[in-house]
Amino acid sequence: MKNKNILITGGAGFIGSHIANELMESNNITIIDNLSTGNIKNLKSKDHDNLNFIEGDICNFNLDDLTCDIDYIFHLAAMASVPLSIERPEECNEINLNATVKLLKSAADNDVEKIVFSSSSAVYGENRNMPLKETEPPMPKSPYASSKASCELYLKSFYESYGLKYTALRYFNVFGPKQDKNSQYSSVIPNFISALLEGKQAEIYGDGEQTRDFVYVGDIVKANIAASEADYNGIINVASGKKLSVNRLYEIVKDTLGSDLEPKYLPERPRDIKHSLADISNMEKINLKIDSDNFESQLIETINWFKTIL
Question: Which among 48, 53, 182, 209 is least buried, having the fewest CB atoms inside 10 angstroms?
Answer without folding.
Answer: 182
